[in-house]
Amino acid sequence: MATAPPTIAARARLKDYPVADDALDLYRLAPAAVAARWQTMAAGLSALRDEAGIPVAEVVARQIQELGLSFRMTGDTEERPWPLSPMPLVIGAAQWREIERGLIQRAELIEAVTDDIYGAGRLVSAGHLPAALVAGSRFFARNMIRARDARGKDVRSKTSGNSRDTAPLLSVYAADLVCGPGQQTGGQWQIVSDRLRLANGIGYALENRLALSRSTGGLLSDIHVRRLAQFFAQLRSGMARACSRENPRIALLTPGRLNQSYPEQAHLARYLGFPLVEGRDLTVSDDRLYVRTIAGPKRIDALWRWIDTNALDPLAFDSRTEIGVPDGFEAWLRSGVELVNAPGAEVLEAPAFAAYLPHLCEVLRKEAPILPNTRTWWCGDPAQAEDVRDRFDDLVITSAFGRKVDGLPSTHGLAGGTLSRVSRENLHAAMLLRPFDYCAQDPVQPATTPTLIDERFAPRAFTLRAFVARGADGQWTVMPGGFARLSSSAHNHSGWLGEGDMSADVCIVDDAAPSNPPSPSALETPKVRRGGGILASQAADNLFWFARYLERAEITLRVIRAVLGSMIEVDAVAANHPETVVALLALLVERGAISEETAKLPVAQAARAALSESVLPGGVGTQFARFRAAGLTLRDRITPDFWRLVNRPLPAFESHRPGALLRVARELIERLSALSGLLAENFNRGPSWRFIDLGRRIERGLGICDTVATLAGETLGGTGESPEALGLLLDLSDSQITYRARYLTGPRRDPVCDLLLLDPDNPRSLVFQVNAICDHVAQLPTLREDMMPEAPLLEARALQAPLQSVTVEAFDGALLHDIEARLLALSDTIAARYFLQYERSRTTTGGSLLA
Predict the structure, then answer these.
(1) pTM, 2 dp
(2) Is the pLDDT confidence value at 575 over 70?
């Protein structure tokens, strides 16, 4: 008798984990109580697999897809699905307590050293820190020298004393940790790098927890995992603490949608309720920072920057930067905005500083480091360089300041013992020529952790990125967890993902479940407010054009559907009427979906070309790429359901058969209809929704004008009447059912034109679009204090007026052309008024619209 296939419990359990009991492995090193939590987690994943009937990794992957989690590696043009291991790292509370102490000590040490570098300079003058090391760091900001003292005086003068403290240099800190051998084989946690520029991974730690908790039900609660929400509430409160206003406006500054971690930044901004802004969204006036919005410039009190100091302000740092804010540094210097972290705070991120931090801890804190860093030698010091030469084969040689240097293929470092004779000679020569560009470190032997791969537990080396932030009281608080990178290589200890790597949640487990679980936020209940916050001008621009591209693609697809339907559906309007098919192809040419040469091809080939076209501006491929690119910039404003539809690739079609192409066209129309439904139902009726619907109504109005002029221009002008063209217009406008219910006759000029052009109750009519445009523009904010109508509203009303008074008999081609021109002009006027319209203003008062 055949035996049943083994269950997941038999194939993937920690009892069969192929690692020796005394190995340097997180599970094998765990105390009995913590090991029991590992086992409970593994058993829970086994049960989940049996319940779902699919591998548990696929269960997690589906949840990641539902949440829209993704990332981009360096050089990627497309985002990748986020790789999350179903098995988290499990760390006991007692062990984590020591890690917390070490992280807080390290953050305080780094801030003290940074404060001295830009302040009194005692460490350099006393010989504890080489001046060449400080000046050699690519993150050293010379403009910051003594700047903090001057800023403190400015704060005190503006607040009439000491009522508000100067914001700290460091508010968010991250460190990459590995668990190496030591402490009597129990494992020694050590810091392999400090992260001071960007806290990459802090958002992914949140996303990992969200995906894992949704995938596994109550499993994390069963093993008493600490929650992360309290940490993020404290982080937000800590940023607000140094701001002068009671209800500060905090924004997250991103380099843009092509940045490697842009999806993380968008998710983080959405979770924290921060506007996601780029440098071009911001401007400085009267030493204060403002974000350009549709209601005029609005003050920003604090900015969480995700760009380097060098890119922060082209007037103060690197003049070549295009992602910074001119005068942004001056605004910070004059206390017009708080920056997290302060400019130049990343100076100690250079690897060579690790050679001095243990000694500086003894000097400044009179204590040894709780968490040692990887032992490091800086070759700019002759004695240390001699040690490196003596132990060359036993060390990893790396760039001292994170720059590309001669003799090393990358900035990640190279084991000296692995070099060929020629490579060794070249590196020795380069190190003799510029010794201060190099440092050396002891090789790291990282611990492994159980990872579920192909339904079996296997060991993988890991790096843990831990995060520390200042809370509401100004004291450091540590995230009870973090972001783990499971490496496909035992030699790469970077905290970021490489090819073949995975991520994992980090779960800190208590001995027992808390008797009174903490609330999601430690803050007091906020005052009730309505509205959706500010809408940056660039965001309004992106919303507007996202909707226009969406509508433009739908109009083109409807024309393609009509072309293909004429070939295979006997009751299609265009069937047996070649002149109507020619008119449809001419419409595709007019809309830029195909070229005139393509229109001469067989109909199916022309339709296929329009579907796949990604070069001509009106092609379906082009329009989908454009609204997807616009959607990328709106990640902080749209739901995961919406983003999944936007990000879905175009369906594959190899055949020229009309039936197959028609199915593709219909599928894409259905997808766009689903997006339209989400837009209609999921956006609050505020400015964001109004700009989306404005874009849609303008584009639909232009489409109606274009379609009617191309297919029924002669009919409209009274020189002829084509029932086939009129019927096709009804088809393209989804108005056949309404027409048939209203009239017991075939398509005729006046009834069709009234329904498609002048019926205010038909959502596909021209007048319906214009009425909606007027309603939206009238509700948009105004900058005029006398409340007189602005240019967009005046133009919208002028557009509406002739449609309110004309009769269908008098509606001719000239009026249609005039309305089309007015729609295009109105689009330009809206852009000029609402999209990045703000320039440097005169001195303002407290009661102005800039508040």
Answers:
(1) 0.86
(2) no
